């Protein structure tokens, strides 16, 4: 799985809007805080609006605001709708499965499936609120299997 600039910038924009929950934020302000051009941001914000994460207000004091509470915005869901499957390889994908040349004897498929499941678990357990509240901790090795958010 590789997160494109679209996915990265969408999360940056959601963070800016989450920091200003309930307030209308201009696209210019979002652009300045995310370091994303207004023209590229327009495309991303329009997509997030169509997906139901945002609403927009027109006019001189117009802009964007979250359409959901930060606790209801799941990062795994956002990444999937913007980027597609989380699997690093097609043979391990659940939604876009592509057999490899070595199947059924491929010895790498379990590794790619574990990577997919680990990425999915972490992203699916994370909300926008978690990111805003800095509730994630970095873990190594066996500790990652016991991934949890700090309180």
Automatic annotation (TrEMBL):
Matches recorded under PANTHER family: HTH-TYPE TRANSCRIPTIONAL REGULATOR ISCR (PTHR33221:SF5), WINGED HELIX-TURN-HELIX TRANSCRIPTIONAL REGULATOR, RRF2 FAMILY (PTHR33221)
Keyword Nucleus: no
Record's keyword terms, sorted: DNA-binding
An example Gene Ontology molecular-function term: DNA-binding transcription factor activity
UniProt cross-references to InterPro entries, sorted A to Z: TR_Rrf2-type_CS (IPR030489), Tscrpt_reg_Rrf2 (IPR000944), WH-like_DNA-bd_sf (IPR036388), WH_DNA-bd_sf (IPR036390)
SUPFAM superfamilies: Winged helix' DNA-binding domain
Gene3D superfamilies linked: Winged helix-like DNA-binding domain superfamily/Winged helix DNA-binding domain
Source species: Niallia endozanthoxylica
Pfam family, one: Rrf2
UniProt-recorded name of the protein: Rrf2 family transcriptional regulator
GO terms for cellular component: cytosol
């Amino acid at each position: 799985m590789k997160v494109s600039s679209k996915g990265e910038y969408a999360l940056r924009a959601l963070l800016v809007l989450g920091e200003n929950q309930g307030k209308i934020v201009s696209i210019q302000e979002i652009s300045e805080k995310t370091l994303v051009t207004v023209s590229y941001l327009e495309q991303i914000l329009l997509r997030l609006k169509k997906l139901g994460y945002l609403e927009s207000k027109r006019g001189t004091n117009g802009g964007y605001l979250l359409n959901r509470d930060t606790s209801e915005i799941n990062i795994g869901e956002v990444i999937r709708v913007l980027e597609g499957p989380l699997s690093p390889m097609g043979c391990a994908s659940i939604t876009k499965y592509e057999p490899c040349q070595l199947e059924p004897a491929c010895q790498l498929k379990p590794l790619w499936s574990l990577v997919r499941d680990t990425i999915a678990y972490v992203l699916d357990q994370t909300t926008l609120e978690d990111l805003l509240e800095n509730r994630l901790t970095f873990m190594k090795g066996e500790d990652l299997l016991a991934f949890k958010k700090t309180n």
